[in-house]
Write a structure and sequence with these properties.
Its EC number is 7.3.2.7. This is arsenite-transporting ATPase. Pfam families: ArsA_ATPase. It catalyses: arsenite(in) + ATP + H2O = arsenite(out) + ADP + phosphate + H(+). It is a single chain. The chain has about 325 residues and is of the alpha/beta class. The protein is about 55% helix and about 15% strand. The protein has a single domain (about 1-315), classed as 3-Layer(aba) Sandwich (Rossmann fold), CATH 3.40.50.300. It has helices at about 15-25, 45, 70-85, 95-105, 110-120, 135-175, 195-215, 230-245, 265-285, 305-315, and strands spanning about 1-5, 30-35, 55-60, 60-65, 130, 180, 185, 220-225, 250-260, 290-295. The strands form 2 sheets. An 8-stranded mixed β-sheet has the order 3-4-2-5-1-8-9-10, with helices on both faces. A two-stranded antiparallel ribbon has the order 6-7. Strand 3 (about 55-60) and strand 4 (about 60-65) form a beta hairpin. The longest helix is centred in the middle third of the chain and has 39 residues, at about 135-175. The chain is elongated and about 90 Å long. The model has no long low-confidence stretch (mean pLDDT about 90).
């Protein structure tokens, strides 16, 4: 499976570029899924289809969906609550649902749910998945989360091992440890292989390592969609540096809404001069990255044929 992430700030045209790219891949014969993770959700408008909260067939090789982040948060926390209750039964003495209600509005939950959505889509059988991402800040935090999560999961594993070691010491003196919950005797595990909490930590760490490897692999393509402006140039450098911190390669930069006018009016001369200046600086700064100009279109493309036309003219 190949994965394609299109990142950039709001309003630069990520949805148009990513939808065009996915449409082009599908026309080439690749079984392709395009996923909008952007809360703005313009993918359905570009495709002329309602794809919100469901996977919809667009053409022979193209499916599309817009992730309902609010619903995904509720489903994620509900699933985690069930796991906690099943994995660690004596947490029932706590009102764990109250804690998950707090988490629903906590900082960072959107990033974790977005990462979980990506992980689940990667388990599907498509040849290519194209991700139309949230604004830059959220997306960069999502890319960083697997690495950060592995670090703190290792700490939790070490902590859990110390707990199990103390339990084993008690077992050596008093025998197996158990407790009675709701009239049922429950054995308290002391070995890693029997401890559901430790097994859950191992599973989570494995998932995060797999995501790190996926994001760093040669099958993962990250492209920045931006415009030929000074502020956008500075942001592109920050994006590249943030990606490098997580061992992720920036493959392409698409300069969208590029002005191509033979005899521009005086009012646009300054803007066109800025474009030329920024493109020169970008080609020097990003000499290892492919840079493509995508001209400002007279109207926004809508529908599969219009999107394929953009792909064939400007994206390959």
């Amino acid at each position: 499976m190949q994965t394609f992430f299109f990142i950039g700030k709001g309003g630069v045209g990520k949805t148009t570029i990513s939808a065009s790219f996915a449409s082009g891949l599908a026309k080439k014969g690749l079984k392709t899924l395009i996923v909008s993770l952007d809360p703005a959700h313009n993918l359905g408008d570009a495709l002329n289809k309602d794809v919100f909260g469901k996977v919809v067939k667009i053409s022979d090789n193209l499916d599309a969906t817009e992730v309902d982040i609010d619903r995904a948060i509720v489903e994620y926390l509900t699933e985690m609550s069930k796991k906690m209750k099943n994995t660690y039964k004596y947490l029932s003495v706590l009102n764990i649902d109250r804690y998950f209600d707090v988490l629903r509005n906590s900082p960072g939950i959107e990033e974790y749910v977005t990462l979980e959505a990506i992980r689940k889509f990667l388990e599907t059988d498509y040849s290519a998945i194209v991700f139309d991402t949230p604004p830059t800040g959220i997306t960069l935090r999502v890319f960083a989360m697997p690495r950060i999560s592995v670090v703190w999961t290792n700490s939790l594993i070490d902590m859990r091992r110390r707990i199990l070691s103390k339990r084993q010491m008690v077992e050596n003196i008093k025998g197996p440890i158990s407790d009675v919950l709701d009239g049922e005797e429950v054995k308290i595990p002391s070995k890693e292989s029997e401890d559901p909490v430790m097994q859950e930590l191992f599973t989570y760490k494995k998932d995060m390592v797999n995501l790190m490897e996926r994001f760093s692999s040669e099958e993962n393509y990250v492209s920045v969609v931006t415009m030929a402006e000074e502020l956008a140039f500075a942001e592109s450098k920050r994006i590249r540096d943030a990606l490098r911190e997580n061992n992720i390669k920036l493959r392409r930069i698409y300069l969208n809404k590029y002005l191509e006018i033979e005899n521009p009016p005086r009012e646009l001369l300054g803007k066109i001069e800025e474009q030329k200046r920024v493109v020169e600086k970008m080609r020097k700064e990003f000499n290892e990255v492919e840079i493509r100009e995508v001209p400002l279109l007279t109207e926004s493309p809508r529908g599969i044929e219009a999107l394929i036309s953009i792909y064939e003219k400007y994206l390959v």
